[in-house]
């Protein structure tokens, strides 16, 4: 298949093979995504933030943990683009390195939460009966605890640190996904197209994985993008209580928490990481919205 | 081919199907007519394995049916649903829809079988990678029929296969169904509320009313008005009255 | 004339161009029963709904004349249209399940329609509702008035829907496939009921359907639409003498009970049908 990746080949109305059909689908999806201006803004912002975090050692002006008590709480200047914090550390460098921690935590939580929630919800919704009752009661138990309290208990039982925080947040964040996936599953489980797959002889596992989960994905993606900022804030709260990222490790939420006393006099110290969280959440949101539209072929 | 003896289906406290019995020979078309709520579709769903809450005896090709069906059963018995919008997965292409039975039954030559399947129901291969919403109602029902035939079944259960279609498309689908029956020696059970459609496709007809099979008769007897049960006569009279255009 | 349509055109913009859904349709309707028959996508629903200006928001409508009882619907503002919709012209849709409010009793919904258009107190409206339910030949109107939509059968729901449309005493009834979700026997009953009410009250009726023989039993005139155009318009009694190949095709492709057809005639669509 050399030289076939031309525009006509990619836009063919009548693909000749499965491979071509898959490429056409992807390319069309990309064209549709590209036409959505806000989604593109989200994609570009997310890409910039991830690249900047990964390239933090190259872009940072100084060591994010280097203290300079003489130059503490300095306003933004040529030397310190975003100023310095209460220990005289360069905020710009800490934002870059903090992105690694914060974005890494968010991505890790989402990667843990979405599949677990989807699996629990769709299995409960499709099988119904005893499986549904058991799985949903377990979900309710997790939902019954206040999110932060449960996370705190888990971290305290484990060992304070980022990986514990990720696991703790994941443990408290999956139940809404399970509820969401179950609701979506219930609306399609009795439809004729699922009946048709059952009559093809497919087993429950295959039906759930290949036919039901794809239909639950779009609402889960929206929920994920809305949850991103919540996850960052929970991580920050854990950090503030000494249960998340440990000092001197830079983490956006912890940076706000530790500097909230200066919000009136040295506003930039808590505001800059706050802006970082805001921009990240918004970008993920826009990206998620655009992705949901592309994932639904009926809108094409 | 199909033996049904004393089949009853309950939904909670109501008995939707009350101890009905009939049999269908190999290569025959058997029709079930009745109004909504008469239990005609319920019979089909119990036979197909979609509804496990039945009692009585059913057998296909000499093998008694149990509540849980084997994979082999699903290769031999397939179903076509009423609503071609609802019976095709909205996010799957025709290619994916048709390959599903092949993957489930681990059949070979997927590529060739899909092309042959499309060809058999007179669909152009250009729609192979389309989604259901990009097809017309008639095309969708053809895809549903092609999917049912993928695993090369012996029995096709048809649940109002043409009632959601325009009359001109209905004629094409009915012709297609008779051609396919001839070509593959299929056994049909057709459920419909439209007497003319059932009489067109089926040689023998069962009439259902509130869960009971009130009459079994041949299509010729139905046409000629040799009915025994008043419900059959009433359905026939109405159908004849309304099917002819009014003349001055 | 109750309804005058001249040279109606309805277009929908597409990604590159636009598609014509209705092309140069002209129809008139007095106090009579007109059937519009065609396949899905033939533009029959759009044509009828254009009289009430109930079209999708992206539809581009143009017409030399589009009038309801002398009122120019094309130029009428929302206030005038609202006085026509529901009050002077009622619309009955295919599935009563989706047109009735699931959390209100049937009686309350009819009473509300009555009060909106005629005013009056709750008690009076409820009495009127029960009277209307009796008019649509419901045997136990008191009981049905207390019932919620999910407790009613399809035929009963459609009767309630009709009663609701009759509340403001309209001059025109548009029935858009009112019985395609119903059984044959119920279908006949509902259509007879509509025919009877329309004749007795001296209303105009537009009955939209895909079933040509069926429509001919309940209408005076039939307009056959194909691909957005009226290809043939004729008296219902003359249907067997239809001239257009499409109309004849619609009749011939039906399986019939009275005589056996070995194979159903398949319609051969001629591209020339698309030209005026």
How would you describe the oligomerization state of the chains in this entry? heterotrimer
Let me know the largest β-sheet of chain C: 6 strands, mixed
Largest sheet of chain A: none
- Extract low-pLDDT stretches of chain A: none
Number of E-state strands of chain C: 11
Query: Separation of termini of chain C?
Result: 25 Å
Q: Strand portion of chain A, in percent? A: under 5%
Q: Which structural category fits the helices and strands of chain C?
A: alpha/beta
Name its key features.
heterotrimer; A: 300 residues; flat; B: 248 residues; alpha/beta; four-stranded antiparallel beta sheet; 25% strand
Task: Give a written overview of the molecule.
The complex is a heterotrimer of chains A (300), B (248) and C (276). With 300 residues, chain A is mainly alpha-helical. Chain A is built from twelve helices and no strands. The radius of gyration of chain A is 23 Å and the shape is flat. The two termini of chain A are 27 Å apart. The relative contact order of chain A is 0.14. By secondary structure, chain C is of the alpha/beta class. Chain C has helices at residues 44-50, 78-84, 96-99, 106-118, 122-135, 141-145, 154-166, 184-201, 212-218, 245-252; strands spanning 3-13, 18-29, 33-37, 60-62, 65-68, 71-72, 89-92, 172-176, 204-209, 221-226, 229-235. The interface between A and B is medium-sized, with 25 and 36 residues.
């Amino acid at each position: 298949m050399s030289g076939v990746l031309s525009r006509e080949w990619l836009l063919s109305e009548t693909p000749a093979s499965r491979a071509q059909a898959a490429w056409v689908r992807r390319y069309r999806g990309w064209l549709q995504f590209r036409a959505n201006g806000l989604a593109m803004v989200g994609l570009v912002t997310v890409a910039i933030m991830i690249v900047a975090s990964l390239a933090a050692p190259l872009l940072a002006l100084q060591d994010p943990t280097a203290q300079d008590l003489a130059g503490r709480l300095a306003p933004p200047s040529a030397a310190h683009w975003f100023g310095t914090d209460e220990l005289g550390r360069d905020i710009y460098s800490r934002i870059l390195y903090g992105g690694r921690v914060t974005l890494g935590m968010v991505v890790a939580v989402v990667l843990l939460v979405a599949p677990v929630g989807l699996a629990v919800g769709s299995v409960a919704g499709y099988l119904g009966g005893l499986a549904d009752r058991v799985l949903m009661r377990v979900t309710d138990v997790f939902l019954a605890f206040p999110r932060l309290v449960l996370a705190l208990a888990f971290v305290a039982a484990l060992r304070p640190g980022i990986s514990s925080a990720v696991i703790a947040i994941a443990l408290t964040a999956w139940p809404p996904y399970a509820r969401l996936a179950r609701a979506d599953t219930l609306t399609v489980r009795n439809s004729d197209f699922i009946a048709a797959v059952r009559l093809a002889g497919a087993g429950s596992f295959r039906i759930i994985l290949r036919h039901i989960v794809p239909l639950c994905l779009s609402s889960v993606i929206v929920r994920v993008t809305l949850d991103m900022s919540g996850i960052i804030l929970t991580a920050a709260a854990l950090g503030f209580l000494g249960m998340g990222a440990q000092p001197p490790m830079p983490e956006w939420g912890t940076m706000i928490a530790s500097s909230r006393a200066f919000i009136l006099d040295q506003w930039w110290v808590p505001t800059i990481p706050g802006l970082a969280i805001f921009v990240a959440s918004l970008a993920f949101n826009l990206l998620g919205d655009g992705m949901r539209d592309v994932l639904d072929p009926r809108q094409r | 081919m199909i033996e049904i003896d004393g089949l009853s289906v309950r939904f909670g406290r109501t008995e939707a199907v009350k101890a009905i019995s009939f049999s269908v020979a190999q290569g025959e078309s058997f029709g079930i007519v009745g109004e909504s709520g008469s239990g005609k579709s319920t019979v089909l769903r119990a036979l197909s394995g979609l509804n496990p809450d039945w009692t009585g005896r059913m057998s296909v090709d000499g093998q008694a049916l149990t509540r849980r069906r084997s994979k082999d059963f699903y290769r031999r018995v397939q179903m076509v649903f009423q609503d071609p919008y609802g019976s095709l997965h909205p996010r799957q292409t025709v290619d994916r829809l048709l390959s599903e039975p092949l993957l489930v039954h681990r059949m070979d030559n997927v590529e060739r079988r899909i092309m042959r399947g499309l060809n058999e129901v007179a669909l152009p291969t250009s729609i192979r990678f389309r989604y259901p919403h990009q097809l017309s109602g008639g095309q969708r029902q053809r895809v549903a029929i092609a999917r049912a035939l993928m695993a090369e079944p012996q029995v096709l259960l048809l649940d109002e296969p043409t009632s959601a279609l325009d009359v001109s498309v209905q004629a094409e689908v009915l012709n297609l169904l008779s051609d396919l029956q001839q070509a593959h020696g299929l056994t049909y059970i057709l459920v419909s509320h439209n007497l003319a459609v059932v009489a067109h496709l089926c040689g023998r007809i069962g009439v259902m009313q509130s869960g009971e099979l009130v009459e079994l008769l041949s299509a010729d007897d139905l046409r000629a008005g040799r009915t025994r049960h008043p419900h059959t006569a009433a359905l026939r009279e109405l159908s004849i009255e309304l099917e002819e255009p009014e003349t001055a | 004339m109750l309804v005058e349509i001249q040279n109606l055109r309805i277009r929908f913009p597409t990604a590159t161009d636009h598609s014509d859904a209705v092309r140069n349709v002209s129809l008139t309707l007095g106090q009579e029963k007109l059937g519009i028959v065609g396949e899905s996508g033939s533009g029959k629903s759009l044509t009828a709904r254009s009289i009430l200006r109930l079209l999708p928001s992206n539809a581009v409508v143009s017409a030399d004349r589009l009038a309801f009882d002398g009122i120019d619907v094309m130029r009428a503002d929302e206030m005038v249209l609202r006085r026509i919709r529901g009050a002077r012209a009622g619309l009955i849709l295919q599935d009563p399940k989706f047109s009735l409010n699931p959390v209100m009793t049937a009686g309350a919904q009819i009473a509300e329609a009555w009060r909106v258009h005629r005013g009056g107190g709750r008690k009076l409206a409820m009495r009127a509702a029960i009277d209307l339910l009796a008019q649509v030949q419901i045997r136990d109107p008191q009981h049905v008035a207390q019932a919620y939509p999910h407790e009613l059968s399809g035929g009963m729901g459609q009767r309630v829907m009709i009663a609701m449309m009759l509340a403001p005493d309209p001059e025109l009834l548009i029935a858009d496939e009112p019985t395609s979700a119903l059984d044959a026997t119920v279908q006949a009953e509902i259509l007879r009921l509509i025919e009877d009410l329309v004749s007795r009250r001296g209303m105009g009726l537009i009955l939209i359907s895909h079933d040509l023989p069926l429509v001919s039993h309940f209408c005076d005139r039939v307009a056959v639409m194909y691909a957005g155009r009226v290809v043939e318009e004729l008296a219902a009694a003359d249907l067997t003498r239809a001239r257009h190949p499409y109309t004849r095709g619609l009749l011939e492709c039906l399986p019939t009970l009275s005589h056996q057809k070995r194979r159903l005639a398949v319609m051969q669509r001629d591209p020339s049908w698309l030209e005026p």
